[in-house]
Design a protein that fits this description.
heterodimer, A: alpha/beta, Rossmann fold, 9-stranded mixed β-sheet, 7 helices, B: alpha+beta, Butyryl-Coa Dehydrogenase, subunit A, domain 1, Butyryl-CoA Dehydrogenase, subunit A, domain 2, Butyryl-CoA Dehydrogenase, subunit A, domain 3, 4-stranded mixed β-sheet, 4-stranded antiparallel β-sheet, 46% helix, globular, binds flavin-adenine dinucleotide
Chain lengths: 259, 417
């Protein structure tokens, strides 16, 4: 089975994230990047599927040079090869454009199953699986907390707040996974060493047949018009207990609309 | 030279182990520590990461890494917790390494794969109740060959290869005891390599040899875990041997070479201990930075007081120096250069740094630093042993002085043979 995992390099969630003053895009240079957390679950799931059913796991990322760090991590975990879509024309692309670009690459490299994390920690759109499925005309099974594959049939527990749906489809398909699905492995040193020797294909827009007049900040369908920095944290309200502490605390919670 | 920089794969390993330490070790280790319990699930996780096989080739089940890989892993673990770090250090440097360096093909293949995977742990028994610094003077444990000829010279310094050791059907019979042996009594301990007197070389000097004693061998009694000041989630035991018999082929390396073997093992082990100590020193900086930005006094964060800022600056300088020292020793070791002095300097510098940083970090934490539940409290308790284990700081100074040509001319006290 040919499994492709789409991964995204995101700014470290622990670091302070900033939008750039000029074009209101995320400042990716000033913070450490790392693999989007949910994508690690996607990689793990792909590896487990491969281990159970044979096949090959390809990592696909779109992003600047720095994103190769995330590719290396995925390869260290055990993915077999990687495709890095890198082109200046792509900078500032929104989710619609990114899904277009990724779909182009996916058409190129072929797939039986595409695995994504349910959302990225930076943009948090959570819509990539749906967009890819639409563009590639394959079913999407999103928010998977469990995946079962039987021949060409794929069965997924689709997590919701109250429980889960059982949904089924035929491969090829796109799935997106939630945290509950597995426990991602740490790359071993052997994996880290082996990653250096694994094939990594670099693709430009031209290579993938991506029309550059459709991608990039200037052609984006959405635009961040303005933003305000988060105000510095205010000192909290201190409730002094003079016998009526409970009431005062409750009143405070009411003013904050917690109760 | 433009500076020490690790290879990219070592940097990646550092990140991986750091994440493991933060996500897997940190949340649970305090509880094991409090209970003086060995953290089996954490050790199993370290095994899955491949940490126990880091410096060994893939042919023996290892990861094909080197001293830097091991040092980086130890540093990142000890940044969070020293008990699991010392378990790894002792298992690799004292347990598995002698087998790898001196074992026959058969010994390697029968023991190393399980040790490299972390499924089993090995220990090295050198120290005795009568002394750890004075080797061979403090050693009383004896192993005598019985039944069947044991090859190798029993009456002179060994110099030929141990041609037929292990082939004849004889046994080694061991009597004596060992003190403070790390990893000697866990449920997954597979063996202890014991340094024992196997003869009297020239009528004056003790002939020392290393012998592999599998866990569970009749005649080997594993004592209770010591109640320790620090390293409380690691396993340290007293061992006693009474008519403890192992097959003759359990001799490790040549008969009579035990002293030389352990000198090399300790030299290399010191680089690893230095890396571990560097980790503890850095962990003190990490915790102090966090606390200084958070704790308030007199209307400010305490990190705004110069006394605190300077203290943390000193701590960072010590951790940095310690790291350079172990990098230097490791680089020499890998290049096949003499490493004795560099290793002693690294161990001395890094254990000093750990001790000083633990004291400072505890001070910065005030009363919370004196609580067992704070990581800093653990750092404080764990630091002291670094100036004692695998050669005390006095020993490191003796080595450095000797390497500088400063010989101890004073006549020794009369030997207590
Ligand atoms: C937790 C823990 C784990 C350990 N794990 C192991 C292990 O796995 N395997 C193992 O074999 N050992 C192990 N040890 C033992 C450790 O290596 C010894 O404790 C150490 O080498 C010191 O030996 P000693 O305790 O006998 O002290 P001693 O040798 O009695 O030394 C006492 C003091 O005298 C000083 N001294 C001795 N000789 C001189 C001299 N010539 N000049 C100046 N000062 C001198 C020493 O530096 C020290 O300060 C462990 C110890 C501990 C506490």
């Amino acid at each position: 089975m040919n499994i492709v995992v789409c991964v995204k390099q995101v700014p470290d969630t622990w670091a302070e994230r900033k939008l750039k003053q000029g074009d209101a895009t995320l400042d990716r240079e000033s913070v450490d990047g790392l693999i989007n957390e949910l994508d690690e679950y996607a990689i793990e799931e792909a590896l487990q599927i491969k281990e159970a059913h044979e096949g090959e796991v390809t990592v696909l990322t779109m992003g600047p040079q720095k994103a190769s760090e995330s590719i290396r991590k995925a390869l260290s975990m055990g993915a077999d090869k990687a495709v890095h879509l890198i082109d200046d024309a792509l900078a500032g692309s929104d989710v619609l454009q990114t899904s277009y670009a990724l779909a182009k690459v996916l058409e190129n490299i072929g797939f039986d199953l595409i695995v994504l994390g349910a959302e990225s920690t930076d943009a948090r759109m959570g819509s990539m699986a749906a967009m890819l499925a639409e563009r590639l005309s394959v079913p999407q099974l999103s928010l998977a907390s469990k995946v079962e594959i039987n021949g060409t049939a794929i069965k997924v527990n689709r997590q919701s707040e109250d429980g889960y749906w059982q949904v089924e489809a035929q491969l090829p398909a796109v799935i997106s996974v939630v945290e509950k699905i597995n426990e991602p492995r740490y790359p071993s040193f052997k994996g880290i060493m082996a990653a250096k020797k694994k094939p990594m294909q670099v693709m430009s827009c031209a290579d993938a047949g991506i029309d550059t007049s459709l991608v990039g900040l200037a052609n984006a369908a959405t635009e961040v018009v303005d933003f305000t920095e988060r105000p510095p944290r205010q000192a909290g309200t201190i409730v002094k207990d003079e016998g009526d502490g409970g009431n005062k605390a409750a009143e405070f919670l009411v003013t904050q609309k917690f109760i | 030279m433009i500076g020490f920089q690790l290879e990219p794969e070592h940097e990646e390993l550092r990140k991986t182990v750091a994440a493991f330490a933060r996500e897997v070790v940190a949340p649970v280790i305090g509880d094991y520590y409090e209970r003086d319990a060995f953290p089996y699930p954490v050790i199993a996780g370290m095994g899955q990461l491949g940490l126990f096989g880091l410096p060994f080739p893939e042919a023996c089940g290892g990861m094909g890494g080197d001293t830097f890989a091991l040092g980086v892993a130890l540093e990142e673990l000890a940044r969070v917790d020293s008990s699991v770090a010392i378990t790894l250090e002792a298992a690799v440097c004292l347990g598995a390494m002698p087998l790898y360096l001196y074992g026959t093909e058969k010994q390697r293949m029968s023991w190393l794969p399980d040790l490299c995977s972390g499924a089993r742990l090995a220990a090295f028994g050198l120290t005795e109740p009568g002394g750890g610094t004075d080797i061979p003077g403090g050693i009383r444990t004896r192993a005598r060959p019985e039944k069947g000829p044991v090859n190798g010279p029993a009456n002179g310094p060994a110099n030929g290869p141990a041609k037929e050791d292990g082939k004849a059907g004889g046994e080694w019979v061991i009597d004596g005891s060992k003190a403070f042996i790390t990893n000697a009594g866990t449920d997954i301990t597979s063996l202890v390599t014991v340094l024992a007197i196997t003869g009297n070389a020239d009528g004056r000097h003790k002939e020392l040899s290393s012998i592999i004693v599998p866990a569970g061998t009749p005649g080997l009694t594993v004592g209770q875990r010591y109640s320790k000041v620090g390293w409380c989630a690691s396993d340290t035991r007293e061992l006693s041997f009474a008519d403890c018999r192992v097959p003759q082929d359990h001799l490790l390396g040549e008969r009579g070479r035990g002293y030389a073997q352990f000198l090399r093992i300790l030299d290399e082990g010191r680089v690893a201990i230095a890396a571990l100590a560097t980790g503890l020193a850095q962990g003190c900086v990490d915790e102090s930075l966090r606390y200084a930005a958070e704790r308030e006094a007199f209307g400010r964060h305490i990190g705004q007081f110069q006394a605190i800022r300077f203290t943390i600056a000193n701590m960072e300088a010590r951790a940095h120096t310690a790291r350079l020292a172990w990098y230097d020793a490791a680089a020499r070791m890998l290049a096949g250069q003499p490493v004795k002095k560099a290793a002693a300097i690294a161990k001395l510098t890094a254990s000093d740094a750990a001790m000083a940083n633990a004291r400072d970090a505890t001070q910065i934490f005030g009363g919370y630093g004196f609580m067992n539940e704070s990581p800093v409290g653990r750092f404080y308790r764990d630091a002291k042993i670094l100036e004692i284990g695998e050669g005390t700081s006095e020993v490191q100074r003796m080595i450095i002085a000797r390497e500088l040509g400063l010989e101890d001319q004073a006549p020794p006290l009369t030997r207590r043979h």
